[in-house]
Each structure stands twice: as C-alpha cells, then as structure tokens.
Amino acid sequence: MPRAKPTPEMEEEAEEVRQEVEGTGEADGSPDAGDGGGEEEGKEEEEEEKEVSFDELGLDEQLKRALRKKGIAKATPIQKEAIPLILEGKDVVAKAKTGSGKTFAYLLPLLHELLKLSSEGRIRKPAPNAFILVPTRELCQQVYNEASSLLEFCTSKLKVVQVTASMSDKDITVALSGPPNILVSTPACVATCISKGIMRGSSIKESLSMMILDEADLLLSYRCEDDLKALIPHIPRSCQSILMSATSSPDVDKLTKLLLHNPFILTLTEVGRAKDDVIPKNVQQFWISCDAKDKMLHILALLKFELIQKKVLIFVNSIDAAFRLRLFLEKFGIRSAVLNAELPQNSRLHIIEAFNARLFDYLIATDDAKTKEEKQTDKENKKETRVSRKHLQQTLDAEFGVVRGIDFKNVFTVVNFDMPPDPAGYVHRIGRTGRANKTGASISLVSAEEHSTFEEIEHMLQEVEKKDTDCISPFPLLTKDAVESLRYRAHDVARSVTTRDIQEARRQDIKNEILNSEKLKSHFEENPRDLDLLKHDKLLSNKEIPAHLRDVPDYLIDPKTKEASNVVKLSRAAMGIDKPQRRKRQGFKGGSGKSRDPLRTFSAEGKSRRRGRKDREGEPDRRKKSKKAES
Ligand SMILES: Nc1ncnc2c1ncn2[C@@H]1O[C@H](COP(=O)(O)OP(=O)(O)OP(=O)(O)O)[C@@H](O)[C@H]1O
C-alpha cells in the first residue's frame, strides 16, 4: 500500500499536536510566558528517583489505611510532587500523562486538609468547602467513587456529593443541604445551581477553600468557559485552585490564566523515561494494514485465535459501526458490550463498572469521532448561534462519547478498529491502557483511506519522542494464513448483518438499557456494589449460534497461529491475569513487564519479516520516507 509522504500541512499540524500533547508553552497566553510572574517551575524528572511512600508525605492515617486496602503503598511521580505543594496551600497546575494517578494527587491532600479542619472544628459551613469540577457526568461518578473509597476509614464524617445536570432541582437541593464538604460536579451544573439560587454566591464566598479542575484539557472543549466565568465572581480570593491535565494545550493555559493566581506549574513525565513521551513506555503500539472491508475479518482472527490479551477496548467511529461489530462477533460466539453516548447515563456508568469488574472482556466504544471538517463546521456554528443548555448537553454527549478521561481498569489491549480522526484522539484512546504503570498494548487496523491519519500519528509520535524509528510496529502474531482461514466465514457472516439488523439492535439495546436503568436506579440505591444484576453483553440476536461459527475447527488453525496463541496464553498466565479478578484492586506492578511479554520476542511471520519492514506488501520503509520528508 503506498504510504503518504508528510506534507507541509501535516508537518505543521504535527507541530501543533506536539505542542498540544507535549506542552512546549510556546502558544500565546501560555502561563509560562504569562504576565503574572507566577512561580514557574518545570519539574522534569530525568534521573532515577527514589520512591516515596504515603507515610513520608505525612498524610492522615485513615487515608493511608484506605490506600493500603487498595494495595497502594507508593506515590506515583505526580503524587509525590503535587501532594506536598497542595498541602502547602499553593495553587498548582499539574500536567502528567494519562493514567499517572492525578486523581489521588489532588484528592489525598484535599481530604487530609478537610480531616484536619474537621478535627479542629474549623470547617466553614454555609456552602461546600471544595468544588471538584470535571467535564462529564461519568467523570463525576468516577471521582465521587474514588473520594468515597478514600473516606472509608474516616471517623469524622466528611460528606462528598455529586450533582449532575440529569438530577432534578429537588434532588440537587437535597444533595446540597447540609452542606456537603466536597461537591463533585460539572461547571455547567454548578453555574445552573447558582443562577437558580440553589447555591448562594455569598455562601460559596464564605465557605469555599479549594477548587479543583480535573481533566482541564477537556473542560474547554466541553464549552465550559462561560460557566466557569460565571463562577469566578463567587470564588473567594483565598481559595486555593488546582488544575489537573493530561496534556498541555492553549485551553489549559487559558484556564490557568482565568482561574489561578501565581500557580506552581508541574510538568511531569515518568521517572527515568525520556521526558518527551506521550504514550507510556509500558504500552507497545502495533498496527495492521488491511482493506476497510477486511477489518471485521482481522478482528475476528485476533479475538478467535486469542492473539491479543484481554480485557480489550475496541474503538469505532460510529454507533452503527459499534453495533455492526457487536452483532458480527456475536455470531461467532464472542460476546461484547457497546458503550455509546446514546445510552442512559445510569447504563453507561454501569457498563463501565461491569467492565472494570471483568464481568465481560470486550467493550466496543465510540468516542469523539468527528472529522476535522465537522469540527471546523461546529466551531463556525458555535460562533453564530447560541444553543440551549439542553441541546448543548445532548450535543456534547453525542459529540464526545463517553470514554475520555475514564479510568478503565486493567484494559490490556486497545484496538483502533477505526482510526481516530487525529493524533490527539489517538493519545487519549491509547491512554486507556497501560494505566498505573501496568503493561498494555494497542493495535490499530489501518485501511488505505486511513493511511494519511496513521502517518500523521506516527509522525507526531516520532517528533514528540524525538525518534527516527517507527513508534508503531507491525503486529507480529497474525499470519496471512490465519486471516485467510476465516475469510469465507467472516465475509458470509458480515454480509448477513444488515442495516436493518443494526437499527433493530440499537433500538433493542436502548430499550434494554432504559429498563435496566430504572432497575439500576432503585437497586443500586440499596446495593451500590452489586454489579451482577445486569449483563450488558447479553445476546442481541436470539438465534442460536451454529457450532461451526462458534468453534474454529482445529484443521483451520495453522501451526504458527497455534503457537502464537499459546504464547499469548502463557504470557497471560505468567502475568497472573488468567482468571477474572472481580473487584480486586491492584497497585502498581513493578517494572514494565516487557521481559515477560512475548510480543517483544515472537514473530509468527518469521525473522525475515520482523527485520525487513519494507517486505510488507508494497510498503516502502517508513523511516526512509520520514528522513526524506525532513530533508
Ligand atoms: N500510587 C498509586 N499506586 C498504584 N495505583 C495507583 C496509584 N495512584 C493511582 N493509582 C491507580 O491508577 C489508576 C489511574 O489513576 P487516575 O485515574 O487518577 O489517572 P489519571 O492520571 O487521572 O488519568 P487520566 O488523565 O486518563 O484521567 C487508577 O486505577 C488508580 O486507582
């Protein structure tokens, strides 16, 4: 397949993305170049650093007990740096990559301080003491869960509540009565509460001592700017502000200027790693070149021959594509669930929890799938019209899907069934694996039409990581024979999944989930931890799966594929992830696990293919192309 040479536009765009993910701070309005003369401090860890325990950070004993229960003993680099600064009362902007533990980096010092104030009887009352603002309702739930779990052993009763736009005014009023010590919400919802008088500005001024903006890089893309601006007059000058972000971008800089006073800026990468990585080193990135019409066939081969590690998060670019894939896999006896913005919020939250608890292994998700052209049109429309809040919320749900910033637990493999529209989307997607220093992998299925995007992503990664070799390698375990052995069946079955089936499945799924949602609501009020009530991966079709599709006959599996599949199984066993570990929380695993990973050492295609990238059908060596482009 001919590969696109990077055009000047691509180079320019890669540079923009590099700034976005790397944060060179060159953009106008960067706090680094800001006028406040803040205490600027780029913390770039290059030397091997000493691990720090939570004891050494001087945190409250009750919080440490909750951490121990989770199996967490050592602080991550961002926690090690941010916690002391926050405890000192500084405004902090913390930028650290996805999955690096930013949530505890602000929750622990916040809870520590509130516990201290509470024990000294110095809690101020008329409104919450802290706001934690996040872009989506899913993230509200996630942060609320994390905060509640940290308070498990606390004797003084700190109250945390989450308030979202889906709640009635009456429910919000009840939730805010007391008032709670910590309010987890979205900027839009807090602004509404103030404008409706549910929360009084003067009370906020009296009580608020800390405001945290989490996932700050996403906040402005959720059009929260006006809501944040509406909040500013009510924030007391003494309020400590914290801003957490996975990437640097002009949006983050804008928020920093808007809300923080002389902040301490922490830019952290992993200890001992190249400072410019945007994808953690413990995540191996692969790609497979295939025709668009053969993508189903390829994913079937990957899953059926067990060539990738579970759990698997599969990204597609539309809800229809998600259901098409789910129906297709179902016909081969592979169960999966679909996570999309169309589902009721309760169901979305429950799907994420059920997946995290390993009740099923394959989750097909849609995310921000808009093309650049669509985004441009949106931008232009945004300037012209002012949409209603309700419409805005619907648009946002549809636009951003439900996965950004979500802490999916123990996802080993992220599959880009469809390529994301841009490099930033790629970074966010891949960030769902390799979290908390665990080993992970990503596989992108790249069609001819997606090659320019793929080139753009590869180019960005090389630029950012200052490499002249490929960052994404060809996937070594899937042979042509393995793919061909399933071609006939796959095409047959793919053809049998009609547009009507997909529409019907979508309707059915929403119907099920709405029913579930009602059940969930009352059930989870009483049994918040009971995840087994509902299954999100139940069959969409009620036809029985023919045996010849469910089980691949032995004669169809070529020896190399058998060997590859065994290696993957062995590696699963070696990593101790063979059995589902429901609801078991894990701490960091030491090291990247690379030495135990067969993907590093095994190639189903043989040595020559591994060495000679240019042997791939019609694909010239990409390194040469990049060099050419540079010259
Ligand atoms: N010190 C620690 N040791 C082990 N695990 C940790 C530690 N701190 C956090 N974790 C776990 O790491 C995972 C990722 O943490 P978190 O969601 O806070 O990352 P993040 O940096 O906010 O990622 P993102 O930018 O994608 O939202 C969580 O499952 C969390 O429980």
SSE topology:
Layout (H helix, E strand, L loop, with lengths): L7 H15 L38 H9 L7 H11 L4 E5 L5 H18 L10 E4 L3 H14 L9 E4 L5 H8 L5 E4 L1 H9 L5 H7 L2 E4 L2 H4 L5 H7 L8 E6 L4 H10 L4 E5 L14 E7 L5 H10 L7 E5 L2 H12 L6 E3 L5 H12 L5 E5 L5 H13 L4 H12 L12 E4 L6 H8 L9 E7 L4 H14 L8 E2 L5 H17 L2 H28 L20 H4 L8 H16 L23 H4 L5 H5 L10 H9 L1
Parallel strand pairs: 1-6, 1-7, 2-4, 2-5, 3-4, 5-6, 8-13, 8-14, 9-11, 9-12, 10-11, 12-13
This protein binds adenosine-5'-triphosphate (ATP).
Pfam families: DEAD (PF00270), Helicase_C (PF00271)
GO molecular function, one term: hydrolase activity
Enzyme class: hydrolase
Structure description:
Residues 614-631 have a biased composition (Basic and acidic residues). This is RNA helicase. With 631 residues, the protein is α/β, with parallel strands linked by helices. Helix content is 44%, strand content 10%. It has 25 helices and 14 strands. It has helices at 8-22, 61-69, 77-87, 102-119, 137-150, 169-176, 187-195, 201-207, 216-219, 225-231, 250-259, 295-304, 319-330, 345-356, 372-384, 389-400, 423-430, 451-464, 480-496, 499-526, 547-550, 559-574, 598-601, 607-611, 622-630, and strands spanning 92-96, 130-133, 160-163, 182-185, 210-213, 240-245, 264-268, 283-289, 312-316, 337-339, 362-366, 413-416, 440-446, 473-474. The protein has a seven-stranded parallel beta sheet, with helices on both faces. It has a seven-stranded parallel beta sheet with strand order 10-11-9-12-13-8-14, sandwiched between helices. Helix 4 (102-119) crosses helix 5 (137-150). The two termini are 23 Å apart. The model is unreliable at 1-7, 13-48, 270-276, 369-401 and 580-631 (pLDDT under 50).
